[in-house]
Amino acid sequence: MEHMWFLFAQIPITVTAAPPPGVGGAVSAILSWVYWVAWVAVAAAFMIGAFSWATGNEERGKKFVTGGVIGAIILIFWTAILGGLGG
Question: b or e along 50-81 (b: 16 or more beta carbons within 10 Å of the residue's beta carbon)?
Answer without folding.
Answer: eebbeeeeeeebebbbebbeebeeeeeeeeee
